[in-house]
Amino acid sequence: MTTFTMTIDGRPVAGERTLGVINPATGAVFASCPDCTPAQLDAAMDSAARAFATWRLDENKRRQALIDCANALKAQAQELGQVLTQEQGKPLKNAIAEIKNAAFHFEHTATLPIPVDVVQEDEHSRMEVHYKPFGVVGAITPWNFPVVLAVWKLAPALLAGNTVVLKPSPFTPLSSLMMGQLLAAVLPPGVLNVVSGGDALGARITAHPVPRKISFTGSVATGKKIAAAAAPDLKRLTLELGGNDPAIVLKDIDPKKLAKTLFWGAFSNSGQVCTAIKRLYVEEEIYQPLLDELAAVAQSVKVGDGMDPATRLGPINTRPQFERVIELVEDAKAAGGRMVTGGQRLDGPGYFYPPTLVTDLPDEARLVAEEQFGPALPVLPFRNVDEALQRANATHFGLGGSVWTNDLARGAALAAQLECGTGWVNQHNNISHLTPFGGNKWSGIGYEQGPWGLAAFTQYQVINVLKS
Ligand code: NAD
Question: Which of 79, 83, 409, 458 could form a disulfide with 131 if both were Cys (CB 3.0 to 4.6 A apart)?
Fold first, then answer.
């Protein structure tokens, strides 16, 4: 069984204890990761703090380092992808695409300017606004896209001049540990430390006196705990949290044409996407035809081990999440829900659940009201658009949402009425590196991507020079 190492101060560090990592396609432990001790975490934090003193000084060197990081990931995309598929479950093709996407993100971030804004310049004074790093950043990530979500944090944090201690999810630590080792070859020691362990390690990072900023992606429940834990030390926070995205489909679309796109908007990565379509509202006139088309797509999709090239949908990543999806679907059945497809776990080992379309549900049913984060989608009819908008917005979540129509101007106007960070028209899940990505309400605080994501890893410093 392969044991992976942490990266602390540029060196591989084994655990005094280890944790097993399960392949969700088999339900069996296939590798192990270190369970970082408090002393090892202190060593990672000290190393990051020491590295900050020089890393912050040379912006050009940091830009080049990001390009080197991109190249290091690209060179090992196959190997990293295989590890990712084994620990996460997603089809290998998608795992490799995730690594390449992460590499792209390093490259793109390397091009972002860190400006000095001159807000006044006259004979009396010169006033400048600088964007300065915080120091050490604690980065904590979930299990659905472990590599790319880590890089969404690493690339801007490092470019801005911060150093980082990264902790991946205990369900998918291996790809991040491997990435830590690869990037240690191109980064100065201490600039990126990668540690692994359970949820308690995340709590220790948040409570640790060294980091000045915590950037977290994960559930609302954990996000609230982190906000509370960060408060006594007034640590800065970015929280990218859960969603319960609505998609509103108007009657002027062609069900046959859009069914596949809608299906994948909900089910890609087996529904384990923060911005997946999690509630599908369909205008009455096309409700049945669209449902029929969606069912046909669901039945045509192969669910299986991500290492099998024919697989389109892998297993659910974790046993707790698998059990939660089962629980929500059983609750839906009890609430009168009708299973159009799926509705039962698949036999055999592994956490396999088929794409499940559920109708006849009240909005109060848990499958509608809560974030399912798995391959079960409630499909809900509506009579008029105002009613659909009202139902779509009646939630604590506010990550994304979409409107589907041939009338693009109307679609954009309706999308603007959705209370969420991104409103899409005729697409969903398309998170662009050119726009700020973040949530309204309980879906988060702060933004990632583009200049906004870079700004999140900086604080202003005003330099105000009196000339005369
Ligand atoms: P989670 O909150 O259980 O865990 C996320 C990370 O937090 C893990 O590394 C975990 O070990 C750590 N953690 C757990 N308890 C902690 C604590 N008390 N203090 C500090 N760290 C702690 O989330 P998950 O189940 O891994 O991920 C699924 C959730 O993530 C879903 O809700 C999904 O919508 C959300 N998500 C959001 C985005 C986004 O960008 N908004 C992206 C992907 C996933």
Answer: 458
